[in-house]
Amino acid sequence: MGAGEIHLGKKESIEDTAKVLGSMFDGIEYRGFAQKDVEDLAKYSGVPVWNGLTDKWHPIQMLADFMTIKEKFGHLKGLTLAYVGDGRDNVADSLLVAGSMLGVNVHIVTPKPLFTHPDVQKIAEGFAKDSGSRNLITDDIEQGVKGANIIYTDVWVSMGENDWSERIKLLKPYTVTMKMMYMTGTPDDQLIFMHCLPAFHDRTTKVGKEIYEKYGLSEVEVTDEVFNSQYAWQFTEAENRLHSIKAIMAATLGNLFIPSVDEGSK
């Protein structure tokens, strides 16, 4: 249900809408803006609520992302993921925290004005102590991508923002190029590129054309060469959103029997 079909917080309170939806459905996925809205839906609806995306977090994306990484490498612990771009957006925040939970070393490579917020860093540090994850937040591209197994990026202007000129000025040196991929020093078979999409890697979209006409950029956060290279795993990542959300629904709504390791090996 889009903004034109539901009065969430506009003509009807979140609490009232939550109660109505909770009486009609077995679960709700919220994909919107305010983090508080999804928390209020969970508080009042009486059914499972999944955070499909807010201005603060993108947890469902993380399940697809780390599923993809495990599909490629066969394990997670000890791998290094370098996120290059806006270090304060919901994807960067979520990667730092989720990676810290899983023992993946996460490097946030971003200009100093866009360093990850201290509260998010603190959450990640708590998980990293238990998992052994070694994280880094730096504006030094060479240091940040060195030894990475995964180079990950996202659009430079996040939801609720429109400051393209300022972001381009800050982030133009952080475009993911083939040179950056080689800068990792990682063997080809141990290196992939990821992007949660959509991506501005060419001028074939309306927004891509507008960016080119206004700022002269044919490619923004990633070059077309990298996007269509041997390293590109963004479409497997996109497919895995289907499988991971089905797993979430099965785990929260289904009557599942999940055997323990001992039972599964018998």
From TrEMBL:
One of its GO terms (molecular function) is amino acid binding. Keywords: Cytoplasm, Transferase. Residues 77-251 form the Aspartate/ornithine carbamoyltransferase Asp/Orn-binding domain. The keyword Cytoplasm applies. It catalyses: carbamoyl phosphate + L-ornithine = L-citrulline + phosphate + H(+). GO terms for cellular component: cytoplasm. The keyword Cytoplasm applies. Residues 6-71 form the Aspartate/ornithine carbamoyltransferase carbamoyl-P binding domain. Its EC number is 2.1.3.3. It is an enzyme of class 2 (transferase). One of its GO terms (biological process) is L-arginine biosynthetic process via ornithine. NCBIfam families: orni_carb_tr. Belongs to the aspartate/ornithine carbamoyltransferase superfamily. OTCase family. This is Ornithine carbamoyltransferase.
